[in-house]
């Protein structure tokens, strides 16, 4: 029904622009030879091949985008789009953007957004070629140019989930490109030439530029700071920041930056970037999109883990894992699926953190951990080379994909940032392993001679003394005290076992946790009180002659 | 005991460096000169409480990561050496994360890594021996150009000794800090340790006794119960 509105010339022009490809494209090789007539026929055929449902969907999407009806857009985006993808395009890509152009009267902005979805679909279901990667980057440039470099703020309004997905996908494609680029042995000669020629595509600086610009344009840091201090965010927001699109994009860019810094190995900067985001606040902006919420905690926990602050890492992971398990039923399936994958990775990291620095964790998490990783945890605590193997395995499963910021030297060896980060982490872990092994022995005694202990551990007394010193050093960690600066913290003892060496005798002191009655009593007392109230109300109802309503089992 | 965090802005950091670190300017390659100068000033300052600015050094390493052609091995060596004697053991690793395998193959940096290994395992005797190895061909020590390195290091070692030991033989202390008997006795007097013949007694620590962590009930937890009790 939209066909009668398209204009011949405009349409053909559009095809040319899109078909303008890089050296490698085999698709429209004889672009000069095919005449306009044929192109038109091709285009018509293409438009015809779009199923009716998809056409209506695209129509609705276009209308809602233009009128700015965010709620309808949310329905289109979160419900219809995945359903249609599953139904029609499970193994193929969505219709080519040039055919869709006909349906929407060449609305440039719509086409940019459509292309973003189109490429995202290809990345997730199919294998993107180098050509696709380049084009997708160009599309992102168009999108961000429109948002950042127009004269005034754009009128566009999009649901938060979509905005988060744009930023998330942008960074994902960047990381995918870097990994792709560095696998030199799989790249053909012409691909390498292409890569060398177009080194500005997906360059680290461009990506960082986009993220920083979004943050700056929206004044999001000032807004957050004002909010924290109890002031009015709207005053500092400025022309762009006052609009929800910019504000949310700025906010999501902060989280995006954290991710990029972790991928580059700069953990301190990652945590510093979150300086105005309150991590404990349950009404913080990141809670609006579940994937964002999970992402924040994953990267925070991972950064802490790499910094050797195992207690803080454990705290972050436990927090988000309890959240995910409790709110599973309130979210849609695909959001839950994505969150579950990250959750699995976090369980692996948590297993590492807890084995290296034993602390008490919440009952449910502890149970799940024991069920899944009991074997690994035992092997880690026994120490030795085996422990390191287990840690490596868990780590490689759960770590983010690291990247190098520069294009590789195409003639030289392949550089694997993953392996390097793992090795550096293992040096720390190797020393930290002293804690669980020594702890298991020291727990059994109140005093012990150095000779006896060295006999148990089969090492020289002098070496043992050194290890005891290492233990002492390792059992103190910096712990975050809940302030706004994630990097700050106090040095606190992180284990419950303490000792002192007098000449050759070790005096051991263990602090135990006393029995906790209060929580149990309070909980049950409240339960009984609720039950009494229900019964009293029931009684009142019967006296008043009201029909009995089945009470829900207390 | 709280040690000043490496991440809070140190009082000795000049404004321009601070501005650099908190801004997008930190990615500008021409700023390596500024940060390298700042590092030189840190190295010249022997006072260990004010001469280590981890964030600035990490920013410099990041610039090297993005611009490998500007990489200066000597600068990296000095940053790592400073991180070695920092009060917080994780600092060294944080610097390492921003380097690559290639950089680590450099001779002086590899040596620093090996030294760090011994230091971390509290094998102090081995450490001193390796660091000032008379058979070493290099003319300069790997920690050259850093004022106050030895003292900073000794402070660290002493902290570990005080934490672990209640009584320790004098000879052991000598080996660990690489000083002769007289110097050690002086140190003991400075720190208020009792020297009893060949044995040094360190001040008693308060933490070393079995304690029971008792439960802490917060008032908020009782509000519901109290309000219900009030109604009756």
Summarize the structure.
Chain A: GO terms for molecular function: translation initiation factor activity. The complex is a heterodimer of chains A (554) and B (232). Chain A is mainly α and 554 residues long.
Please explain how this structure is put together.
- Chain B: Residues 52-218 form the PCI domain.
- Chain B: It is found in: Cytoplasm.
- The complex is a heterodimer of chains A (554) and B (232).
- Among the domains of chain A are: 433-510, Arc Repressor Mutant, subunit A, CATH 1.10.10; 518-554.
- Helices cover 66% and strands 5% of the residues of chain A.
- Chain A has 24 helices and six strands.
- In chain A, strands 1-5-4 form a three-stranded antiparallel beta sheet. Chain A has a two-stranded antiparallel ribbon with strand order 2-3.
- In chain A, helix 3 runs antiparallel to helix 4 (70-88), helix 8 (160-182) runs parallel beside helix 13 (244-264) and helix 15 (290-306) runs parallel beside helix 17 (333-356).
- Chain B has 232 residues and is mainly alpha-helical.
- Chain B is built from twelve helices and four strands.
- Chain B has a three-stranded antiparallel beta sheet.
- The longest helix of chain B is centred in the C-terminal third of the chain and has 16 residues, at 149-164.
- Chain B is flat and about 80 Å long.
- Chains A and B meet through helix 10, helix 14, helix 20, helix 23 and strand 3 of A and helix 3, helix 5, helix 9, strand 1 and strand 4 of B.
